[in-house]
Amino acid sequence: MLPRLDTDAEWDEASSDEAALRPGVKDLCARLGLADAELTRFPAGSLPVYAVGAEHVLKLFPGVYAQDGVREARVLSHLEGRLPVPAPQVRAAGPYENGWHYVLMSRIAGEDLAVAWPRVPAAARDRIATEAGATLAALHALDPAPLADVVGPPDWDTFLDKQRSGVAERQRELGLAQEWLEQIPEYLNSAPLLTSAERVLLHTEFMREHLITDPSDDWRLTGLIDFEPAMTGDRAYDFVAVGLFVTKGDPRLLTRFYEAYGRAPYPPHTLLAYTLLHVYSNLPRYLKAMPVPPEARLDVLADTWFGTETGR
């Protein structure tokens, strides 16, 4: 069986110990009628995820993250058949032993877009941006009310206030240089964050790593995965990951994404503010991976990462 892991520290210690996890995974597969299926753990991701034969994927959540498993199963069920780029279909979900939770889902054909991207032709990249924009728009158009008991936060403005209160210290702990840190308070105070009552279902990590593409079908997008961090909130929040991990500072691709989504671009200032307030924000990491701004100023950084083509 799988070991009991009820704290972050316990999970950090055991997460890569495949010898400790595999017997429980095999036992669970047997209970699900998949004893003879080949098990292959995917190398990426913060949680143990296994290909179970050619048709299934098994995602496991230790006790400390069990509620994330409940959330993912509910969100996937809510999405079934409702997005132009499909999410996995839930085959089974529930509690296992020692506090663990599992979601058995359909396996989507194709490969991780982040891995495939260097091989994707320019024309196909444009089409992918269009397909991705339409998919995010469809996600945001769904009514999140049926998920209110598992997807939060209960109050968006309270969530933002909490994120704002510790933002500089979090970035300092991640290694952000002082020249950036000292700009954060004033930058956030002037940020045009939206306070409308509208709240939509957010993926929160809409990125190449969570999009599946099929190279044998002209690089068509075939899937959108990983919904355990889903939230409800301002739709602009999802454009943080779009700019950082899908279009990656490419104004033309981001413009295409907005056109497919069906709205005018958000002010870059707004999106960089949400970048700083994001649950998974890591500005030092982004500074290493994204285009370098011509000046070490947050307003210039916002335009460099989240700017679009002018006149469109």
TrEMBL record:
Which residues are listed as membrane-spanning? none
Under the heading InterPro entries, the entry gives: AGP_Transferase, Aminoglycoside_PTrfase, Hygromycin-B_Kinase, Kinase-like_dom_sf
Residues annotated as domain Aminoglycoside phosphotransferase:
39-265
Judging by the UniProt lineage, the source's domain of life is: Bacteria
Note the Gene3D superfamilies from the entry.
3.90.1200.10
Protein name in UniProt: Phosphotransferase family protein
